[in-house]
Amino acid sequence: MNNEEIREYCLSKPGVTESLPFNDTALVFKVMDKMFALLDLSEDSRGITLKCDPELALELREQYPEVTPAYHFNKKHWITVYMDGSVGARLIFKWVDHSYQLVADKLSVSQKKLLKDF
After folding, report:
1. Domain boundaries, position 35
2. Run of H or E including 3
3. Model confidence over 66-109: pLDDT tens digits?
4. How far, in Å, CA of 61 to CA of 17, rounded?
5. Is 23 helix (H, G, I), strand (E, B) or coil?
6. What DSSP letter does each residue of 52-104 carry, written as one string?
7. On the CB side of 39, how many CA atoms lie within 13 Å of its CA?
8. How many domains does the chain have?
């Protein structure tokens, strides 16, 4: 699994945009201007940071050594998944879906209607 595969998957979600706010070292993915993922582009760290339900985040951190608290965000609500380990693409895509849905569920009614038009 590589960064481009994850990037394409994130962008396949309705209403998702990307930006490079951190000196070209990470891509930020947002749905209706609300961030749900940050993809690290640096050479020494291949990981994606995702918004996560706190209970699921704890469960994933206990089950997978590749999943850690996201130290640059609220640790309870964000996880970082390192792609050099045994976590496969299917699981990473599932967690991207979870992150996207957490954010999409909190959008206003008018924003949700816009998403359906994508």
Report:
1. 3-116
2. helix 3-11
3. 888 887 676 678 888 887 767 788 888 999 999 999 999 988 88
4. 28
5. coil
6. --HHHHHHHHHH-TTEEE-TTS-TTTEEEEETTSS--HHHHHHHHHHHHHHHH
7. 24
8. 1
Residue corresponding to tokens 């380990």: 85
Residue for token digits 């991207």? Answer: 96
* pTM for this model (two decimals): 0.86
Backbone φ and ψ of 39, nearest 5°: -105, 115
Check which CATH number belongs to the domain holding 9 and give it. 3.90.1150.30
Q: Residue 86 phi/psi, 5° resolution?
A: -90, -5
- Altogether, the residues listed in the chain come to a count of 118
69 contacts 78 by C-beta, under 8 angstroms:
yes
